[in-house]
Amino acid sequence: MLICPEYCFLNLARLEITISDFIVRVMFPVFLRASQELNVLILRMEHTEKPDANFSESFDSEWNAWVREEVPLCLLKELREVKIKSYQDGCRERKTIEYLLDCSKVLLKMSVYVVKPGIKLQVSPWISDVPKASKNCQLKAGSSV
């Protein structure tokens, strides 16, 4: 018997979504849990000019609450490719990448496309050191597409 969350996308194999602060904190875990057959995930990072002064504290609290929940099935059995677009090396971006690499057991490829070329030099060594659940995962950092 399949138990679905409030939203359920049983046959969704590819998801491309723009990630804002709200989406990361509230809807991202819902999308992952509801998309059990997800093979390709494309995240375009949306950036705000000035984050709220309480953003970091509230983000950490909400993030920590949902990452302690059961790992979504798509990360354990289906997700093969992740593309991160418009990466700017922010807290939520790093945490999202760390979570996906740490929990995605069958991930084959993660590509991170940066907004500014200088960020690529920072991302390449950092992302290589992040623990990966999938030993076959290939990592790539490049300029924004």
Short description:
By secondary structure, this protein is of the alpha/beta class. 40% of the residues lie in helices and 21% in strands. The chain is built from five helices and five strands.
Topology overview:
Layout: E1 14-19, H1 21-34, E2 40-45, H2 55-67, H3 73-77, E3 81-87, H4 91-103, E4 109-114, H5 117-129, E5 138-143
Parallel strand pairs: 1-2, 2-3, 3-4, 4-5
Task: Please characterize this protein's 3D structure.
- The structure is a single chain.
- The protein has 145 residues and is an alpha/beta fold.
- Helix content is 40%, strand content 21%.
- Strands 1-2-3-4-5 form a 5-stranded parallel β-sheet, with helices on one face.
- Strand 1 (14-19), helix 1 (21-34) and strand 2 form a beta-alpha-beta unit.
- Helix 1 (21-34) packs parallel to helix 2.
- It is globular, with a radius of gyration of 15 Å.
- It starts with 13 loop residues before the first strand and ends with a strand.
